[in-house]
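ok so heres the complex, two chains, lmk if somethin looks off
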Amino acid sequence: AQSVTQPDIHITVSEGASLELRCNYSYGATPYLFWYVQSPGQGLQLLLKYFSGDTLVQGIKGFEAEFKRSQSSFNLRKPSVHWSDAAEYFCAVVRDSNYQLIWGAGTKLIIKP
Amino acid sequence: NAGVTQTPKFQVLKTGQSMTLQCAQDMNHEYMSWYRQDPGMGLRLIHYSVGAGITDQGEVPNGYNVSRSTTEDFPLRLLSAAPSQTSVYFCASSSHLDSNYGYTFGSGTRLTVV
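and the predicted structre for the whole thing:
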């Protein structure tokens, strides 16, 4: 069955440092992949998505993600984090059978001043 | 503003009560979904709809009903609330018919069942 794994429950990064959040998915015929961000008490905002083509995808707020089929990964990166990036980040993949989203458990990003 | 509107934002229910969570979208999206979010579990699909008059179950449908009489509205009904249904509920809509394929989420309903 298709699934998404985010191995890190929490990640702590100093402000100004680089960030990489990991996401692994089980293979599906159509690896439509998404990263969403959720600030405390808020809804979900789309950061970026991958459907096909260039495997390096640019998103909003300076985030990017790289699709690596050989590793079944879609890791999210940012060169320099800001305190406002503190939030929970979710990776998701589209389920082949019904086009609904399968979600990872999320990674909570904590920013050290 | 165009988007997905959920009401109410907060609700407290007593065990055994019923209620309806409302969801409306004005983007003419054919797909609509309901998810629940619980700590450490990400979001789990409750029910979804691929168009007016068509609904299907997701991963955790028990205790919930849905209907889709119009393209715009997709209400979620709790038949007899239980403490295990304490959660944050998100409605989402999407379109698969254009290149801007993606999911738009409502701001959520925080439900507590006591």
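quick notes: Chain B touches chain A at residues 31, 33, 35, 40-45, 48, 50, 56, 58, 90, 92, 94, 96, 101-103, 105-108 (CB under 8 Å). thats all i got rn
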